[in-house]
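Researcher: Good morning. I'm working through a list of sequences from a screen, and I'd like to move beyond sequence-only analysis. For each chain I'm collecting a predicted structure so we can compare shapes side by side. This is the next one on the list. No need for commentary yet; just the structure.
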Amino acid sequence: MGSERARSADLDVTPEAAFQAALGVAQHEKKYEIRAVHNEGQALIIRQKTKALSWPKVIMLRVHQNGSGSSVNVLVQNIPGGPTALLDGVFNGKIAEKYLSGIQGTLDGTVTAPATAVTSHYVRDDGSELPWDDPDELPEF
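Model: Good morning. Structure tokens for this chain:
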């Protein structure tokens, strides 16, 4: 049984606006560490920082055109190679829902999280920053 959980939301905004809201949430919440951004492909990879004795979670987000609006897809999983627990799937689903709520709040104006422009890149575990060229191919951290 996998612990990854996916959630999605259809929004009545352009994919660019939805992606900027998602990026803003990641930049303004102290618990998130942006590991990869692909502006043209509207993709994010975020590591959620956790408290002591917990393992970080990985949040992968992608925005797609959906008619005149957009679809935001969020996948949350345990950090690769980390331990799993029985309730991880439940917690990962709640993290995905909370992230989507933050995006919706940013778009509604109830949450203040303006995005700061960044170049498409990914950050390796050693701290080096490299360009992320293909949003359909996961970068090697």
